[in-house]
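In the design runs reported in the main text, the only information available to the sequence generator was the tokenized backbone. The following block is the verbatim input for one such run; it is reproduced so that readers can re-run the procedure and compare outputs position by position.
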């Protein structure tokens, strides 16, 4: 992370996996077009994960991509807070923290684990959940990660958004983000952003990104699966639910992190 040179207008999206990175990223990308410093020339550049820093002959590193991005840049991470502590507390990096109810997060993460060319996990949800119990998920402990980012909420350069708030009132979330990022947005712009960032539109855009590529539609349907609240009820057993609730009691309750679902 030391190689990453923070710019004053940078915005980092920090969240555990499958908490809504892509949805929030697209909202911020569209908001960026209204930023006073925006050039409008970077719309086609994907929002990189700062930790994906392993270049290939055909693919530059995340840091190389970031260096080429025009300001104001949007960058994502699934790293724990301790990796970003210096950037946030000493260099003033602006962060939008995105958190989601953990049972839904794990449900979505399981389906992500099963996508071919990503993890291609061969087991069922209950086998995946054993990885959770054993703390063997690639992302690490999502409960600790959520707690630690949540505890940075009182810093002036940190803004917390909950996935459930985005589902309930996307427009209000956009307005609060605009205030935090000092982006003047008229009501018409807010309405346009909300409409363009609906999951159905984003799924369709991904499926059509490469013409005549049928596999991309399949991936899009898995990547943008449901985006609903409460799908965990179709997956978790009572014992698994109790395990998550105990983790919530240990990690979330002492710091006042709660989700209204």
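Verbatim output:
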């Amino acid at each position: 992370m030391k190689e990453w040179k923070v710019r004053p207008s940078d915005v980092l999206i920090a969240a555990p996996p499958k908490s809504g990175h892509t949805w929030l990223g697209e909202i911020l990308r569209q908001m960026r077009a209204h930023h006073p410093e925006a050039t409008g020339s970077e719309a086609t550049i994907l929002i990189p994960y700062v930790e994906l820093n392993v270049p290939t002959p055909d693919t530059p590193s995340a840091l190389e991509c970031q260096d080429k991005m025009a300001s104001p840049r949007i960058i994502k991470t699934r790293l724990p807070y301790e990796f970003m502590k210096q950037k946030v507390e000493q260099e003033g990096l602006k962060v939008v923290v995105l958190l989601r109810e953990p049972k839904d997060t794990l449900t979505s993460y399981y389906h992500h684990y099963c996508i071919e060319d990503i993890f291609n996990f061969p087991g069922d949800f209950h086998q995946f959940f054993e990885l959770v119990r054993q703390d063997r998920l690639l992302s690490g402990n999502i409960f600790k990660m959520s707690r630690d980012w949540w505890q940075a909420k009182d810093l002036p350069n940190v803004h917390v958004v909950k996935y459930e708030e985005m589902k309930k009132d996307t427009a209000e979330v956009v307005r609060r983000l605009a205030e935090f990022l000092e982006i003047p947005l008229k009501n018409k712009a807010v309405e346009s952003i909300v409409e363009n960032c609906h999951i159905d539109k984003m799924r369709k855009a991904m499926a059509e990104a490469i013409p005549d590529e049928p596999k991309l539609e399949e991936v899009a349907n898995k990547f943008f699966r449901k985006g609903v609240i409460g799908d965990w009820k179709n997956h978790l057993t009572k014992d698994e639910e109790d395990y998550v609730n105990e983790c919530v009691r240990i990690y979330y309750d002492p710091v006042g992190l709660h989700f209204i679902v």
